[in-house]
Amino acid sequence: MCERVSEHSLEQVEAHLRQRLRGRVWALRVSIREGGVVLQGQALSYYVKQLGQQIAMQELRLTVAANEIEVRPTVAAQDAGGDPG
């Protein structure tokens, strides 16, 4: 499965990703699935979605089985009280 997960708790992985992504992913969750970890949440852009995956793979050296982070650029405007689109 994901041999490196044993070196990091899922809470540590989530905390590291939250710190590096600086609030650009909401409701971030990391879970284990056969073949690696699964990233879930909502991101401002496709770039941020991919950045989360890259951080997990390169910095944490995890195998990403699925990147289920949903791209929702209007979330930021709604949270800020602005017009969603």
Summarize the structure.
With 85 residues, this protein is of the alpha+beta class.
Low-confidence stretches: none
- Our count of helices gives 3
Radius of gyration (CA) equals: 13 Å
Biggest β-sheet description: 3 strands, mixed
Mean pLDDT: 85
- Would you list the SSEs in sequence order as H and E? HEEHEH
Indicate the proportion of strand residues. 25-35%
**Helicity range:** 25-40%
By secondary-structure content and strand pairing, the structural class works out as alpha+beta
SSE map:
Layout: H1 10-21, E1 25-33, E2 36-43, H2 46-59, E3 64-71, H3 74-79
Parallel strand pairs: 2-3
Antiparallel strand pairs: 1-2
Helix pairs in contact: 1-2
Q: Could you walk me through the main structural features you see in this protein, from its secondary elements to its overall organization?
A:
The protein is globular and about 35 Å long. It is α+β, with helices and mostly antiparallel strands. The chain has helices at 10-21, 46-59, 74-79; strands spanning 25-33, 36-43, 64-71. α1 crosses α2. It is 38% helix and 29% strand. The protein is built from three helices and three strands, in the order αββαβα.
Give short descriptive properties of this protein.
single chain, about 80 residues, 3-stranded mixed beta sheet, globular
